[in-house]
Design a protein that fits this description.
The chain has 71 residues and is mostly beta strands. 0% of the residues lie in helices and 44% in strands. It is built from no helices and four strands. Strands 3-2-1-4 form a four-stranded antiparallel sheet, with no helix packed on it. The protein is globular and about 35 Å long. The protein starts with 6 loop residues before the first strand and ends in a 16-residue tail after the last strand.
Length: 71
């Protein structure tokens, strides 16, 4: 997969279809999990075990103090 700033390689752990959207659970190399929700338009279907690269746009990131959670 692609590598660069704000790009994290991982594997698709599971895919959950929720009608108009699909939830893709990605397990990163360090074991942490990222959950991606996107329209279920049939474009770019993903399956368990697929190698993917999660891209985090800089304008969508927030830096939180240690131990803080979003409300």
């Amino acid at each position: 997969g692609a590598q660069g700033p704000n790009q994290l390689p991982g594997l698709v752990d599971r895919v959950v279809y929720l009608g108009a959207t699909v939830q893709i659970v990605v397990r990163l190399a360090d074991g942490s999990v990222v959950i991606v929700t996107r329209p279920s338009d049939g474009v770019g279907e993903y399956h368990h075990g697929d190698a993917v690269c999660v891209t985090l746009p800089p304008d969508a990131l927030r830096l939180l103090p240690g131990g803080a959670e979003l409300a």
